[in-house]
């Protein structure tokens, strides 16, 4: 049974978001981000929510790679 174009795009966004959580080469990360940005705001609300989620995964992964150091005033 076919899932339809919107659900297929949603599944792709989820897969790309999951990929962004993994260690990737810079060119691979850039290609994934470009693919997501190219569709951002151009799809159904459901797909756009999943694209936003996928892009957020890169931000979370980036924070894990470069954690914010504690404030010198933190106790």
Strand content: under 5%
Largest sheet, strands/sense/barrel = none
**Spans of 5+ residues with little confidence (pLDDT < 50)?**
none
Derived structural class: mainly alpha
- Termini separation: 57 Å
**Any idea what the radius of gyration is?**
15 Å
Helix share of residues? 55-70%
Could you tell me the mean pLDDT?
91
Order of helices and strands: HHH
Counting structural domains, the number is 1
Number of helices: 3
Number of strands: 0
Shape: elongated
Layout of secondary structure:
Elements: H1 5-20, H2 26-39, H3 45-65
Helix pairs in contact: 1-3, 2-3
Can you describe this structure?
The chain is an all-alpha fold and 75 residues long. It has one domain (5-65). The chain contains three helices and no strands. It has helices at 5-20, 26-39, 45-65. Helix 1 packs parallel to helix 3 (45-65) and helix 2 runs antiparallel to helix 3. It starts with a helix and ends in a 10-residue tail after the last helix.
Structure characteristics:
68% helix, 0% strand, 75 residues, 3 helices, mainly alpha
In short:
By secondary structure, the protein is an all-alpha fold.
């Amino acid at each position: 049974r076919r899932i339809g174009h919107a659900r297929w795009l949603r599944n792709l966004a989820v897969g790309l978001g999951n990929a962004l959580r993994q260690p990737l080469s810079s060119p691979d990360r850039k290609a994934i981000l470009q693919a997501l940005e190219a569709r951002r705001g151009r799809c159904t609300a459901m797909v756009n929510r999943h694209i936003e989620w996928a892009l957020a995964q890169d931000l979370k992964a980036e924070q894990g790679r470069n954690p914010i150091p504690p404030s010198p005033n933190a106790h």
